[in-house]
Amino acid sequence: MGWAAQLLPGLEGRDAARLDALPSIGVPAGETLFRAGDAAQGFAIVLDGRVEVTLTGASGREILLYAIAPGQSCIQTTLALLGDAPYTGDARAVTPCRLVMLPQNLFHSLMEQSEPFRSFVFRAFAARMSELTRLLEQVAFARIEARLARALCDMAQGDMVTATHAELAARIGSAREVVSRHIERLVARGVIATERGRITICDPPALHRLAV
């Protein structure tokens, strides 16, 4: 079974064959897929790897809007194709990725004719909007310490987080200097320990309490 039938249950065989015939594209880690102001060239679906979409303000501060995991698509691309508008954020592969790119004419044809494809696109759209609403609530209302603790809990692999202060700042919508001060406080309290590009969670229960 091809990837199309797995991701889009109920898709007609002819449509699934059209999608499965599209070549997969390998993208190395660190490569930029699009930048703010670019026009959408097609509708991308990530098959393997992780892509992050960020927004950069006039001050130069960056915030992580959302990440695209295998089997997911990009709401920025959906908006660009449906609204004939340029991208407003930047997308970068943070791991080696493999994706397929649907040409614009195929995307619009499937949106018009295929209910399973439309459902896939709009379910992804709804999920992303929910994520962005939660992000807005966190940035607007949650304390920096709580947002940082929540990010560390979410990113931890075991008791280890691999991230720079700038990456954490982008993830929680704050400035790197502010994040660095809060990390120093957590270190002083024995909640975490740091080394270059790595953070060890020394007291997981305490960190989880701060994340609430």
Set down the secondary structure blueprint.
Layout: H1 3-7, H2 13-20, E1 24-27, E2 32-34, E3 42-48, E4 51-56, E5 62-68, H3 75-83, E6 90-93, E7 97-103, H4 104-113, H5 115-141, H6 144-155, E8 160-162, H7 165-172, H8 176-188, E9 192-195, E10 198-201, H9 204-211
Antiparallel strand pairs: 1-7, 2-6, 3-7, 4-5, 4-6, 8-10, 9-10
Q: Would you kindly provide a written description of the structure presented here, covering whatever features stand out?
A:
This protein is of the alpha+beta class and 212 residues long. The chain folds into 2 domains: 3-140, Jelly Rolls; 142-211, Winged helix-like DNA-binding domain superfamily/Winged helix DNA-binding domain (Arc Repressor Mutant, subunit A, Orthogonal Bundle). 47% of the residues lie in helices and 23% in strands. The chain contains 9 helices and 10 strands. The protein has helices spanning 3-7, 13-20, 75-83, 104-113, 115-141, 144-155, 165-172, 176-188, 204-211; strands at 24-27, 32-34, 42-48, 51-56, 62-68, 90-93, 97-103, 160-162, 192-195, 198-201. It has a 4-stranded antiparallel beta sheet with strand order 2-6-4-5. Strands 1-7-3 form a 3-stranded antiparallel beta sheet. It has a 3-stranded antiparallel beta sheet with strand order 8-10-9. The longest helix has 27 residues, at 115-141.
Helix percentage range = 40-55%
CATH-level-4 superfamily name of the largest domain: Jelly Rolls
Mean pLDDT: 90
Give the helix tally: 9
CATH fold call of the largest domain = Jelly Rolls
Q: Strand order within the widest sheet?
A: 2-6-4-5
Q: Structural class, please?
A: alpha+beta
The percent range for strand residues is 15-25%
